[in-house]
Each structure stands twice: as structure tokens, then as C-alpha cells.
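Input:
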Amino acid sequence: MIEKIDAELARATQALSGARSEREVEAVRVEFLGKSGSLSGLRKGMGAVPAADRPKIGKLVTDAIARVEGLIDEAKKAVARRELEKDLHREKLDVSLPGRTHKRGHRHPVSQAFDDIVEIFARLGFHLADGPEIEWDLYNFEKLGFPPDHPARDMQDTFFIEKASQPPPPPGSPPTKGAMEQLLLRTHTSPVQIRTMIGQPPPVRIIAPGKVYRSDSDITHTPMFHQVECLHVEKGLSMAHLRGTLDAFAKAFFGPTVQTRLRPSYFPFTEPSAEVDVSHTLCDGRGCKICKYSGWLEILGSGMVNPDVLANVGYDPEQITGYAFGVGIDRLAMLRHGIDDLRALFENDTRFLEQL
Ligand code: DAH
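Output:
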């Protein structure tokens, strides 16, 4: 019996040393310790052992079983360790490889200019105002001093929509009938001047950025573009306030060394009117292709609000004055980045936009 026990123990030890997987270890367990396993069989066979030897033999069997159980545990752990090592080996990690980065986008150059302009004027104390892109002829033209058939209407190629059956909301004074009913895509942000002044008494100090539309398309014109309207109406305002505000804006947008100059011009809603140029920063005012070798770039139209416009919205032109200007945002974005084809801004070719 003792020999048998030793032999089984030796066999189990041998078998476990060769076990390479959990399945093989389990097979060994079943073979020796399972219900009909050889060591379990020895324990069951104790009855046949003479009573005097039973305690000694019994202890040998129990020890052998405990020993094999211990070996099985060790074998299981060894198998798990080997598996882990294999996994680690397979999943080799090269910490010197560059990480996976996400591509970061940025705002469109027109949106950047748009936001910058709003921020600059907010700092100067202007409030944000808004108006619809589908506008009444009344506000886009008539109240701004363009009566029907006025030649200045030709300055802006208009997309007319249908004549509406409903008249616009009650304005200060009754307009001519035809103009009252006409709808169009606003050709400039100036109608927001009218809407704001009709809606509140002076003082008014607003900027109104947004989309405008004209039937025009070439390298410096797209049918949709962006403008910001600026309007300041209050007692005692003069050209000096206009000039100062324009200069502060130009310096904040283009940089502190930029110069501004006013040239006489004409708009029906301002009197006097002026076009505003800034010195060209990209060529230091020395003259280049973009500024047509003049050193100056035209950036906006401006003027003192025409007294007729003030009267049109119910203000008293004897009491108050105002200045206004309208800027093309896309043009400012182009000038800032030295782009010479406006259409490039709207094609949304990311290879182009990523450079800005
Ligand atoms: N609305 C004009 C345009 O689109 C620009 C303009 C000129 C706006 C003079 C103004 C202004 O407010 O005072 O051509």
C-alpha cells in the first residue's frame, strides 16, 4: 500500500510538471483526486488495510492527497503566470511612438472678423441690434432717403421678392403705397438703423452685423456678404465723433500703427458722406498690388445721419445729430489676411481655410 501511495504521488507530480494549460491541470486533478481518481480510490480502499496499520496508512494517504492538491494549486498559478507573460509579450507597447492627436479646427476667417468687430464696438459702448434678411423696401430704401425711382437705388443690385399683401408694421409716417408692399433681400444693414430708431427714443448707440444680398458676382463681389452697421445718435455729435470712433476701430482691428482718412462721397442717408480708407498695413503704406499702389484701402462708407432720415423715424433733427457707417466684414477679413479673391472665402476649401 505504501508503495502504491508513493507511486501515485510520483505519477501525479510528474503529470503536473508537464501540464501546460488549465485544461491539462484539471485532467490531472480528475485522474488522481476525482470521484474515481486513483488517490481517492486508495482512501476508499482503507477498509482492506489491517486495523493496526490503518492510522499510519490513513495519514499517508491524506498527506498524499493534500500534497497533490497543493501541487495542483501551484500548477494552476504557473499556468496563469505563463498566460500573462505570453499576453504581455504579444501586446508589446512602444512608448516612443507619437501619440494620436485630434485635428483642431478654427473659426472661419469671416466669423473671426465678425466676432472681433462686435467685441471692439462692445468695448466702445455700442449695443448689438438685429434685423431680418427679408426686408421691406420701406426700411431698406425709402426711409433711408431712396424714394422709388431715385437713381441711388442703382448703387445696389437688388434681389426683389414678391409684393406682400400685408403692409409692414406701423412706421412713423405713411410711405408711398408701392414701396410699402415690396419685399426684398436686404442690400445692406442700414435698414437696422431705421428699425432701431423707430423702436426707441434717442440716444441710440448700436452696431448691427449680419448677412446682406446683392445680385453681383465677381472676384470682389459675392451675392451674399456680411456687413456691420454702426449708428450713434445723440445730442451734440459731430464729424469729430465719427472720425474718432472710426480711428479707434481701425486701430483695434488692424493694429495701432494704422492711419485713417476720409474722402467725400455720397449716400442718400448721410449728409455729409465720406468714404473711409485705412493705410495698407501689409505693405506699410508703401503701395503694392493689393492697394493698387496707393498705400490706402477703402474699407467703409460713413457720414452724418441725414436730417431727413431722423425726421422719417420721428426724431427732431433740430435737437439731435448722429453719425453712421457700414463696413463690409468679408472685405476686412480679406485685407487682414491679404486675400485677393473674395470667392475663396465662401468655397470652404479646407486646404485654403486652414492657412488662415
Ligand atoms: N449702406 C451702405 C452700403 O451698403 C454703407 C453705408 C454708408 C452705411 C454710409 C452707413 C453709412 O451707415 O453712413 O453701401
